[in-house]
Structures are given as C-alpha cells and as structure tokens.
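Dear Dr. L.,

I hope this message finds you well. Following up on our conversation about the binding site, I have prepared a predicted three-dimensional model of the protein together with beta-D-fucopyranose. For your records, I am including the exact sequence and ligand specification that went into the calculation, followed by the structure tokens. Please feel free to forward this to your student if that is useful.
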Amino acid sequence: MLDLSPFPADFLWGAATSAYQIEGSPLADGAGPSIWHEFAHTPGRTRDGDTGDIACDHYHRYREDVALMGALNLNAYRFSISWSRVLPEGCGRVNTLGLDFYQRLVDMLLEQGIQPMVTLYHWDLPALLDHRGGWLNPDSAGWFADYARILFRALDDRVKLWVTLNEPWVVVDGGYLQGVLAPGQRNVFAAPYASHHLLRAHAAAVQAYRAEGHHQIGLVVNLEPKYPATETLADFAATMRADAYWNRQYLDPVFLGAYPPELAEIFGAAWPSFPAADLDKIRQPLDFLGINYYSRQVVQHDPGDWPLKASRVRQPRQTHTGLDWEVYPQGLTDILEWVTRRYGPLPLYITENGAAFYDPPHVEGTAADPLRQHYLRDHLRAALEARRKGVDLRGYFAWSLLDNFEWAYGYSQRFGLVHVNYATQQRTIKTSGQFYADVIRSHGATLESGTED
Ligand code: FCB
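The resulting structure of the complex is given below.
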C-alpha cells in the first residue's frame, strides 16, 4: 500500500531530559557530587535556592516515567548519564550501583519498544574533576574518553544512538564566560580554552567509539538563526559575529577543521592560537548531528554589549515564552536548511525543542496548556517543511518529557509534556502531550489537518 504519511515509519518521535534536571538523589548509592550539585548548593546561584536534590525523583520513579512515554506513543527517548554516578571521582573507580541504574533504564525502554539516545555529557561534570581545573585542564579530553569507553562497553549492545556533548556553547558561555551556570566562572581568557578542550573531548570520545562501538555517534548543539535588525553594515557585521559565536564556533571546527575568523575579533587579546594538530583531530566524521532549537535572534550593533558588541532586538508583536524567548517556528526550517547547506548533507535530529509557559492550574485531573500545544504544532510543521525541502531529518525530541529543574531558574519554568506536582510527585499528561501522542499515532497526518487558530 502506498504510504502517504507526512513522516516515514522509521521517524523517531521522542522526548528529551537530562540527569541532573530530573533524577534527584544526586549522591545516592555511592555517587559523587557534580558541579551542578555544588553550584545549586551555593547561596545565590539558583532562583529561590532550588537544587536537584529531589527534582522529579526519576531515580526512583523511572518505571512510572517509562510507562508515561508509552502512553505518549514515543518510540525514542533522549536522556543523559550522570558521570559522577558512574565514576564518583570522575575517573578511576567505577561505581557499579550507579551504572546499574542506567542498565535498568535502558532495559525497560527496550521492553517498551522505545529507542534510547544517550547523551554522555549534559553539563554535570564530576565536582572532583572541576577541582582539578575541569574543562580548563587539557587532561579533560582523556578523562572524558575514559568515561565514555566505560559506557560504550556497558551499553553499546543495546544503545544505538550516542551523543558526546550537549550544547558546548552553553557549557562555556554560561559556565566560563558569563558565570550564570556551573561552574560559575567569568573569565574571558579561560573561555576559549574550555571550548577547545570540550571539542578535543568530543573528538576523543568519537575516536574511542570508532575503536569499539557498533552503531552511531554524534554531537548536539544549540542553534539560533540570526537576522539583522536593519540593512546597515553595522547590524550586518553584528549579525555575523553573533552567528559565528553561537552557531559556527563549534560546528566549523567539527566539520571544517577551523574556527570562524570572527572569534579572534570577538575575543581580542583573549583569543589564543591553537595547534593545527588539535583541529585535525577535532574534525572526526560524525554519524549525525543533533540540533536543539528554541528561538531566533534579531541582532543589532551594540557597543555596550560584551563581548559581542551585538544584542537582541525584542520583537514586541511576537509571542514570547516564560523565559522571554520569541516563538519563531520558521527559524527551525531556516536553521535545518542552513546546516544542510553549510555542513551537509548529513542525518539530522531535532534533539530538543519546546517552550516554558505558565500552565494554568489543573481542572479535575486535566492540565491544559494551549500555548505549548501551538508551539509544538507549529514547530513540527516547520520540521516537516524542512524535510520537504530536502533536509535529512530523522527524528524529533520534544523538550521535555517532564517539568523539571531548569538550571539557574530552578523550578520556576515548566517545559514538560507532563506536569509534575513537586509536592506529591504526581504526574499528569498535559493536553500538549495528548496532542503529541495523536501526531505520533498518525505519523504526522494530524499536523496537516489541524485547526489554524
Ligand atoms: C537547553 C538545555 C536543556 C534545557 C533547555 C530549556 O539549553 O539543553 O537542558 O535547559 O535548554
């Protein structure tokens, strides 16, 4: 029979989470602390002093959560491994109890017909490695490859999709330049080294995978298309700087073997020269690229901004999320096409996409979130549009399965398809989650027949 479904039968329909944001019990069963544990427990670092100590208690409730994935019709789930559960000191001694948790989770997912996509690093560096310099220590690439190898050996018989790093841009911009995320440093002279060592770590893990892995490995970056606010040369140049910093800083070295030239201008005296041999090694062939997309940026020249001299022009007529991120579905199509043109063609996944909105209180067991539902619908349509324009898009992961710990914003921002009552840990599927389940059941057909409100 001719299949006229908008998305192919093997398209991955998933949701994404990360370890520190949902698991809770960060020190259970012999786990070591991570930089997020220390950061959140430092007064003044997170909103209302929120921590991941309990979060969604997924460490104990993962069975219930996998069942929820089944209720949402998901055929894929992207989660991350807590490095310091597996290696409490970051290297050396393996904590089998920590590793066992992920073994059980993977087994349960496979029993439900849900394909795991495993992220090795979603921001929670073991604290003891940070005390030795963290990503500023050149040895970090080796630490990461050793950790990755342990996971490959434990799970590669069942996990077919591996991600080295989640969003190196955020790791460095938030953690080493602006200081708003763990480990909270603000050092423009250090930031380029953190980026470089993250890229070396990524490459070292890919090489380790090629030596003993059997499936696919890739990288996840957050991309945000940049559009000039006016046609002036100054705004155009500012847009190019913003694009180099956000979008090309990691992808150019990985796919083209060179940093974008704008970085030397942006960092000035703080921009080092890196060995050519490192860049050769960083350029490892990847099986896929994961893209996290949330918003776009309209950019203007702004001498007062540091270090880019470029800032966002808010678009007052557009809808904005709880984090004041502009809702701009067209940007998803644009960025997927841009990646394919500049670096591809290559297999792509949307590894995160979603929105924080204030969710009105429940009425009799239902959780209505029309704004999130519209966001989801319009971005799925934008993804479909990209496929129709020839982008090799293989899957979509909504951020997030559950409301969770949104880093420095604590629990104040809810992104879930499933509402979490943090007092009782009760989960309730939101109407956006029900909508997504219907989209998945129809292979996307309901997207084309949906209402146009
Ligand atoms: C991304 C992160 C993810 C979550 C979303 C909202 O940058 O990867 O953990 O915080 O933003």
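In brief: The CA atoms of residues 68 and 429 lie 8 Å apart.

With kind regards,
A. P.
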